[in-house]
Backbone:
């Protein structure tokens, strides 16, 4: 094969797929805990993506489809993601969360906001072939980065693999990650810089006031996914703060995680039932869930907290509800 350019030219892109290994078993182990874990996982992926100049094509439930114009950035992303996931403190009650990454370098057709083609399919199948904690790459990635000082001596030949849906056998290589015994100590890696990239944006490294500031700013801008990053960081420290739970409920509802929204808002009312707006937001969630009887109960709570709450009164009229 001919060597490919190290920067995107004429449509050449690095296509990257990620997912969480064993997600079905994790859902079965503890649905609530894994729901929280996925919020944290998604925030970590997006932070690593931003650090490495990649683009999110789509979210796939427990993973992502991403693109990078520079293949080295894709590899850096994979290494950073694995380091972050390995060092993260996940919710209790779950086995260790392990992600896997597959990377290919090639051409694909742009279709609206998506990409299609053999290069994309190969990247997805490479991800499927990886084990948790692995970053696997194609021969085209290795050739594109051949001789690069940051990449040399950091790949291990895995072997020729028959990938599902791919004709013939595919040679695969594993990117050796930081702390792997096979990585020579004499190399000049980028990994020691990773803590510097994440300290300023990692929730556990920020004080509560700063987390609140960032969460409010994100909510004001309508970026509820970003808001959840900071709110979850606060939740790890103060899980019984009704104000925090109310904010989490609003953010979860905005991203259509209605189960988590209901849990947070209901818990907030249990801790402090005096906020009519929290009861009203809970009623809205029950409405989206189609639970009419619970809508009536939550609106009743809102009007008990504030008999003049305009939105609750309007909703009560809409639902044909009457209070004693």
Residues:
């Amino acid at each position: 094969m001919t060597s490919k350019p190290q920067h995107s030219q004429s449509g050449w892109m690095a296509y990257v797929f990620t997912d969480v290994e064993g997600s079905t078993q994790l859902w079965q182990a503890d649905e609530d805990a894994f729901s929280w874990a996925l919020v944290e996982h998604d925030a970590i992926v997006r932070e690593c993506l931003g650090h490495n100049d990649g683009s999110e094509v789509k979210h796939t439930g427990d993973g992502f489809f991403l693109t990078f114009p520079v293949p080295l950035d894709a590899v850096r992303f994979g290494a950073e993601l694995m380091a972050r996931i390995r060092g993260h403190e996940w919710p209790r009650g779950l086995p260790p969360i392990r992600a896997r990454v597959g990377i290919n370098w090639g051409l694909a057709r742009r279709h609206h906001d998506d990409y299609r083609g053999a290069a994309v399919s190969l990247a997805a199948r490479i991800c499927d072939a990886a084990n948790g904690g692995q970053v696997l790459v194609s021969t085209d990635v290795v050739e594109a980065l051949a001789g690069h000082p940051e990449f040399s001596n950091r790949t291990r030949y895995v072997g020729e693999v028959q990938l599902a849906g791919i004709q013939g056998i595919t040679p695969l290589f594993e990117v050796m990650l930081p702390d792997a015994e096979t990585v020579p100590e004499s190399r000049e890696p980028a990994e020691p810089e990773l803590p510097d990239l994440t300290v300023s944006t990692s929730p556990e490294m920020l004080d509560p006031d700063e987390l609140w500031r960032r969460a409010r700013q994100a909510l004001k801008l309508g970026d509820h996914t970003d808001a959840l990053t900071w709110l979850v960081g606060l939740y790890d420290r103060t899980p019984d703060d009704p104000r925090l739970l109310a904010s989490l409920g609003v953010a979860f509802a905005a991203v259509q995680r209605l189960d988590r929204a209901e849990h947070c808002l209901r818990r907030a009312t249990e801790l402090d039932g005096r906020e009519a707006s929290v009861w009203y937001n809970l009623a809205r969630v029950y409405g989206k869930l189609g639970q009419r009887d619970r809508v009536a109960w939550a609106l009743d709570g809102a009007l008990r907290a504030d008999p003049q709450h305009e939105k609750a009164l309007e909703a009560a009229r809409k639902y044909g509800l009457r209070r004693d």
About this structure: DSSP finds 13 helices and nine strands in the chain. Confidence is low (pLDDT under 50) at residues 1-10, 180-201. The two ends are 79 Å apart (CA to CA).
